[in-house]
Amino acid sequence: MRDVAIVSFAQVRGDPASGLPEVLLLVPAIRDAIARSGIPRRSIGFTCSGSCDYLAGQPFAFVQNLDATGAWPPIAESHVEMDGAWAFYEAWVRLQHGDIDTALVFASGRSSLCNLREVLCLQLDPYYLSPLWVDDVALAALQAQAVLAATGRTEKDLAEIAARCRRDARANPFAEVSGDEDSAALLAQPYVASPLRAHDIPATGDGAAALVMVAGERARELCERPAWIRGLDHRVDPQYPGVRDLARCRSAEIAAARAGVASAPIEVAELMTQFPHEEILLRQALGLGEGVVVNPSGGPLTAHPVMATGLVRIGEAFRQINEHGRRRVLAHAASGPCLQQNLVCVLESETEAD
Amino acid sequence: MPEPVTEMKQMVALEYAVRPSPLTLDYLGKLRAGRIVGHRCPECELVYVPPRGFCQICVVPTQTPEHEVAIADRGTVTSFTVVDPIQYHGQTEREVYALASILLDGASGTLGQQRIADVPLEQVRMGLRVEAVWIPEAERKSDLRDQGAMLGGSIRHWRPSGEPDTPLSAFQEHIV
């Protein structure tokens, strides 16, 4: 495999009241990521983006986003109707071809324009679940019940995870919510969907993110502390949640094994945990011990720019190496109901050759 | 044995908020006041109508007043089509009409889906000079849904201005 590193990352938080189009959230995100990379914009070899037209309710909404790249003369680009973490995966595969050395990845979404819980019903199978309009929060609550029953953990554990995320989010300028409550105060809140309460549900927002990745030695020339991609894999569980053991996350287990998570200790993990029980489940599936710091950014419970949240995990993990001197970190992204699809990325401060 | 299910219907309706951008609201407000405006890129000098807030080639923001330029309410037909409206349910058009792409004086790109009227259809042609026929100011409205660059709430249609035709060489790069 070719050594590929992330050399820059940028994020923009959207203000739903401003009415700014999605492309104008992307303009500063892409501009900053490219400026920080030190690569001339027109020399980038490949561009890949992730978004979902259902959020804006406009067919081909993603095409307008391409204007933020200044795609003239024409560029080589691709789009995934998925979180930007999967665009990151495609760009990494593209760089493995060996003929180009640089890629731009971006993701964006304005979920404030839609009723997200309704829209997410449409990702379910069209025969048995979608007609019931069972939404992502209801399905997550079922999985939370299964996880608590299987592990012996309690709602207090969920509240403690939520309280920790809200405290950590106070230092994150992109957080939608933050707070300094103790778990007892959170447990006093009413259920939204038992056992989940309002603080157990992701704080959705509008936003955009972009990163630049570079293959080989050039990454070191451009960036003092690049984050090398040492393992990257994504796997998917069956679409119908009823055929799964919801207390396990098989696809995450396989992705973690394929990404080589266990070959050395992980210091920090940025996980796309939209609900606190997912942290319990993923710590187990990814083999993360109690010593691993999870979501120091506050995670998706406090900032969920839908379609960019997974790419932000990768960006936050990059920052752990680039800015905070960590040596081995993990980024995770998820898609579908009940952690159906999982992407695992291991980033390190050094390559194998080092 | 019960009959096998071969078909099922699922009614899906999703509701969306429409929040026009401040740039769009500004553009529509000026249009209601009888002015067409664009944004000029400070680097490549292309003029975008309607304003986009940034240059799509240079990726330079153009969100401040110094980037705004006045655009004439007249221009050249670069291409056109004659539409014979099929009378499907909800169709409001009854007569044959012409839609054109117009390169407004001062703009760098054409505006599509512009209604041409006050001229026999067989006289609509590439190079024809046209001018706006404005809706009376009190009746103008902001029409976000108008496909023709949102001009339709303030401009009723375009008619020949009587100027000599523009030679093809002056607009051929705008013909796709």
Write the topology of this structure.
The complex is a heterodimer of chains A (354) and B (176).
Chain A: E1 4-13, H1 22-37, E2 46-50, H2 53-56, H3 61-65, E3 77-80, H4 84-96, E4 102-110, H5 116-121, H6 136-151, H7 155-168, H8 183-187, E5 191-193, E6 196-197, E7 204-215, H9 218-222, E8 227-236, H10 250-258, E9 268-270, H11 276-286, E10 293-294, E11 304-305, H12 309-322, E12 328-335, E13 341-348
Parallel strand pairs in A: 2-3, 2-4, 7-11, 9-10, 9-12
Antiparallel strand pairs in A: 1-7, 1-8, 4-7, 5-6, 8-13, 12-13
Helix pairs in contact in A: 4-12, 6-11
Chain B: H1 22-32, E1 36-40, E2 47-48, E3 68-71, E4 74-83, E5 97-104, E6 111-116, E7 129-134, E8 155-160
Antiparallel strand pairs in B: 1-2, 1-3, 4-5, 4-7, 5-6, 7-8
- CATH class categorisation of the largest domain in chain A: Alpha Beta
Q: What oligomeric state best describes the polypeptide chains here?
A: heterodimer
Give the largest chain-chain interface (CB within 8 Å). Answer: A-B, 32 and 23 residues
Mean pLDDT of chain B: 95
Number of strands of chain B: 8
**SSE succession of chain B:** HEEEEEEEE
CATH superfamily of the largest domain in chain A: Thiolase/Chalcone synthase
The number of distinct structural domains of chain A comes to 2
Structural class of chain A: alpha/beta
**Largest sheet of chain B, order of strands side by side?**
6-5-4-7-8
Q: Averaging pLDDT over every residue of chain A, what do you get? A: 97
Number of domains of chain B: 1
Give the amount of beta strand of chain A, in percent. 15-25%
Please state roughly what percent of the residues of chain B sit in beta strands, choosing from under 5%, 5-15%, 15-25%, 25-35%, 35-45% or over 45%: 25-35%
Number of strands of chain A: 13
Give a short account of the largest sheet of chain B: 5 strands, antiparallel
